[in-house]
Design goal:
Structural class: alpha+beta
Number of strands: 8
Organism: Rhodanobacter humi
Helix content: 25-40%
Order of helices and strands: HEEEEEEEHEH
Keywords: Signal
Pfam families: PD40
Shape: globular
Number of helices: 3
Protein name: WD40-like Beta Propeller Repeat
Signal peptide: 1-20
Mean pLDDT: 80
């Protein structure tokens, strides 16, 4: 009886191993391969990271690092790909980076070393803080055009 139980257990383990091997081979065969995003338009010789897209995918914000400077850049989808990135209207003076857009596109949060002396004088020590920017008025005007 014990011999029969071990035989059943060994058979079950062999079957599980066979299914696992088939599953691993299938995963290897269908694994997507990463590609450079928008080469020459957004991805290029200057470091870029932290892309965040508007809900419809038509606008992308990302940070671009050039030496000690960091800016949040903006690009718009066109018929031919993406527009030339430009520094976002709210960025460019401070070291802004790591943008993230709200799921509904109504605001953007990002990290910056900008000072807010009116509210943070007690702890404005030059370190980065998280900032929130409402995009609702801008997006409404942008999509109305």
């Amino acid at each position: 009886m014990l011999h029969r139980l071990f035989a059943l257990l060994a058979g079950a383990l062999a079957l599980i191993g066979a299914f696992a091997a088939v599953g691993l081979r299938a995963a290897e065969a269908t694994s997507p391969q990463p590609e450079i995003f928008a080469p020459g338009a957004i991805s290029g010789p200057v470091g870029v990271d932290c892309l965040t897209f508007a809900p419809d995918g038509a606008i992308v914000y990302f940070d671009q690092q050039a030496g000690a400077s960091g800016f949040i850049m903006e690009s718009h989808r066109t018929r031919d790909g993406w527009s030339a990135p430009r520094i976002a209207s709210f960025s460019g003076q401070w070291q802004d980076h790591d943008p993230a857009m709200a799921p509904d596109g109504s605001y953007l949060v990002f990290t910056s070393n900008r000072a807010d002396l009116a509210r943070m004088r007690a702890w404005d020590n030059g370190n980065n803080h998280i900032w929130r920017l409402s995009l609702a008025p801008w997006l409404a005007a942008h999509y109305a055009a």
